[in-house]
Amino acid sequence: MTQHTVSSFDEELKSLDDMVMTMARSVIRQHSDCSDLLASRDATLAGRIIDGDRAIDDLQVGIEEKAIQTIAKRQPLAIDLRTVIATLKIATDLERIGDLVKNNAKRMLASSAQSQLPPGAANLEMLNERVAEQLDRMLEAFEQRDDGLAKEVWMRDIEIDTLQTSLFRELLTYMMEDPRNIGYCTHLLFCARNLERIGDHATNIAEQVHYMVTGATMPIDRPKG
Amino acid sequence: MHGVAGMSVQQIEGATVRPLPTTKIIARDVNVHYGEKHALKAVDVDIPDCSVTSFIGPSGCGKSTFLRCINRMNDTIASCRVTGKIEIDGRDIYDKTLDVVQLRARVGMVFQKPNPFPKSIYENVAYAPRLHGMSRSKAELDQIVEASLEKAGLWGEVKDRLGDSGTGLSGGQQQRLCIARAISVNPDVILMDEPCSALDPIATARIEQLIDSLRQHFCIVIVTHSMQQAARVSQRTAFFHLGTLVEEGPTTDIFTSPKDKRTQDYITGRFG
């Protein structure tokens, strides 16, 4: 894109962009670490993920402050306005993703007494992978301002929804089979639900990228499972 | 929601919220040459009644030139040649049989620098109605003066000193006096060429408030260098660049999602 006549405006927008990228990368790393917990049950790692959410919250506050300052100082218009507003909303979604990952880490910690991999874990692993792919796509869509990729994120959320639904049925079966499964299966159920919510936040972000790039909003209805 | 944006209200609610704004001015293939210089190139635009349309663009883009075509002020420049068609209420204003003096009474103009006559406040406003024989008595003229000053939001400030000189008022008051003078002959269209650029922010806000209230009765076209002003006061915005009308549309669209890259570059401050 052509540079602004006032170069400090470009620098401000760039720094906002960098902050979002940092935040998104942190969230993705948190999610990836949390996925490892499923197999490792590593309490130290879980603790680090839980503590690490604080930095993500701080980034969100920083982005909000910066965006408000930019609006006050520059009165951005057109693509600049859309970028600043989309950035604000994306930061909110990333913060929510961070919270959900943190909640999953807590649940993994709570069920770490389980000596062996509980049933259903394989499907949860697959769900983790799908979510990770969506988050990577979302990051690239934002970084490259790639509307095509944003649309792909938006379209593919249905895969996560479908997987979550089948995992729900599976876990329900285990719980009915043996009541001793109920404890950890409930944790897994909530994890699956959290992952599904993370997928929704990723599509929200994709919608913001679409708005930022095109100035149009995505249709209200998205493919549902 | 107002003006052209009001159309969407009507579409959403399906009821007659307000009548759709009718087109007041139609311009087709308007070209202006100053000698060899092609200052305005094939401009086509429809300007709605009872709303504010702003013209924006860098200096020398042709926006003021086009504004001056609408009351034929360019006629006064010897080297200037205007071709194409401009209609107001369906009447071709470049028709040979049209009385230009009458046209300029119907199309009022407010300039960048307030330019009251070196006469009393009363005379500034009374001058044109008297010239056009709009009143039969002193009482009627008094009424026109009061109504015009009232509409221009100046009456309260000057009613006790109508005999004072217009040039003794503050800049913002002078500008409102000029607006009162423009509306004293009950024009169809008011053209404003950067009406606030010589005013402080408070006087500017008062003029903007005035423009917003005048919109109910008049078709207003404003040239402004302030993007924020265009965004605040107008319902439609036209962007001119190098003598071309690049893009015209609802103000909210122009300032959030302009279609043309040149418009985007200009309003976001990315110009060359």
Short description:
Chain A is mostly helical. Helices cover 83% and strands 0% of the residues of chain A. Chain A has a single domain, classed as Phosphate transport system protein phou homolog 2, domain 2 (Methane Monooxygenase Hydroxylase, Chain G, domain 1, Up-down Bundle), CATH 1.20.58.220.
Explain the overall architecture.
- The complex is a heterodimer of chains A (225) and B (272).
- Chain A is mainly alpha-helical and 225 residues long.
- Chain A has one domain (7-214): Phosphate transport system protein phou homolog 2, domain 2 (Methane Monooxygenase Hydroxylase, Chain G, domain 1, Up-down Bundle), CATH 1.20.58.
- Chain A has six helices and no strands.
- Chain A has helices at 7-40, 43-74, 78-110, 121-144, 147-177, 182-214.
- In chain A, helix 1 runs antiparallel to helix 2 (43-74), helix 4 runs antiparallel to helix 5 and helix 5 (147-177) runs antiparallel to helix 6.
- Chain A is elongated.
- Chain A starts with 6 loop residues before the first helix and ends in an 11-residue tail after the last helix.
- The model of chain A has no long low-confidence stretch (mean pLDDT 93).
- Chain B is α/β, with parallel strands linked by helices and 272 residues long.
- Chain B contains eleven helices and ten strands.
- In chain B, helix 4 crosses helix 5 (138-151), helix 4 runs parallel beside helix 7 and helix 7 runs parallel beside helix 8 (201-214).
- Classes of the chains: A mainly alpha (225), B alpha/beta (272).
- Chains A and B meet through helix 3 of A and helix 9 and helix 11 of B.
SSE blueprint:
The complex is a heterodimer of chains A (225) and B (272).
Chain A: H1 7-40, H2 43-74, H3 78-110, H4 121-144, H5 147-177, H6 182-214
Helix pairs in contact in A: 1-2, 1-3, 1-4, 2-3, 3-6, 4-5, 4-6, 5-6
Chain B: H1 5-13, E1 23-34, E2 37-48, E3 52-56, H2 63-70, E4 80-88, E5 91-92, H3 100-106, E6 107-110, H4 121-131, H5 138-151, H6 155-158, H7 171-183, E7 189-193, H8 201-214, E8 219-223, H9 227-233, E9 236-241, E10 244-250, H10 251-256, H11 261-267
Parallel strand pairs in B: 3-8, 3-9, 6-7, 7-8
Antiparallel strand pairs in B: 1-2, 1-4, 4-5, 9-10
Helix pairs in contact in B: 4-5, 4-7, 5-7, 7-8
